[in-house]
Amino acid sequence: MRKIKSSGTSKKGILTAITFVLLLTACGRSEQPTPSSLRASPASSKETPAVITLLPEQHYGDKLQMQDKRQKLYHFITTELSGTAGIYTNLQDTEQTAELTTGHEMLSESAGLMMRYKALTQQKSAFEAEWTLAKQTFNMEAAFSYRFSPKLQKRYTLNAAVDDLRIIRALYEASDVFQSEAYMQEADSFGKRFYEHNVKNGYLYDFYDETYKITNDFITLCYIDLKTLGLLPIEAGERQTLIASMEKIIKDGYLSDEFPFYETRYDYGAGKYSSDHINMVESLLTVLALAEMGEEKAESIRYIKERVKAGTLYGQYTREGAATTDTRSTAIYAITAMIGSVIGDQTLYADSIGKMNEFQIEEVGSSLLGGFGDTAAQQAYSFDNLMALLAYTY
């Protein structure tokens, strides 16, 4: 779940808005409770970027006949884990007053993941319905709110860059899958807005606060979606500067060949990286972002393949590579499956999906049937379930 709080709940004003993001820990903020070619179409004054392949090409999920598991999971998400305003963060509701996103609050993260799923599975009317709902729930003047509380009727007035980029990517994917100029135009419009507020001097920032008109002063590495940044409808020189800057920040955050993952965040003012510990979901998303650009390190893939096959890829490590927990999660294996698909490694995909499937609930009569969660506690988190759903489509 998201460790983040809004400046809207703070009495410290701008200072809190600048510093609160230190609580933010992941691109996927759920805790797991259980053991085609596409071209952006910028305005005529801007140079068209090179063709970027966004859509998964391998379709390993279909080749390995994951359609039934995918459908059962989709049924769980849409019948048990969803409300009228979107997808619940957790199956169990709360008062929705905590600093962390909890209970039946909604995240723009979830909307973007479901939009991608409906685009990739070519559900045109379902995609349009999901996009319409996402705009109603999350769209603000300058960005998409990262969080909405139905109980409090509260839309938090800041975004999370990675979540906005995911929605923008989903629109580009939909424009390609459905051959829709309208989705292309919307992707360009929201992409331009995103660039104006979340990018400064060629560098990406974690959030933009619409109340105080500010960003934070660092970047969380797993927020750097290089592929989608490459589609933003901006000048060619601006695009080149942005991609080069952010790719360098990722690569310079590499830890070691012995533990081939990445630092958590980079502070622009201090010019330094920091990581209290290494959350595997975060580092895997960074590896995935590099893989989508053909820039993944062989050492990272080797390590991932070995640990996935052994079932020993855990949730958190020290910077030196010592596991701090023996917890495994659905999301970890979903992301490694996506990495396998992107690099064309069917063995990695199959091994990852096999480990992930060990967590799927198959108890007939359970309210979690088809989902991923803890049947005893009746808990299930949106990120784990939606990442698994997406992995099945890769």
Automatic annotation (TrEMBL):
Q: Name one GO biological process term.
A: carbohydrate metabolic process
Q: Cite the GO molecular-function annotations of the record.
A: hydrolase activity
List the Gene3D superfamilies. 1.50.10.10
Which keywords, in A-to-Z order, does the entry hold?
Hydrolase
Top-rank lineage group of the source organism: Bacteria
Q: Which organism is it from?
A: Paenibacillus algorifonticola
Asked if the record carries the keyword tRNA-binding, the reply is no
State whether keyword Hydrolase applies: yes
Provide the protein name: Glycosyl hydrolases family 8
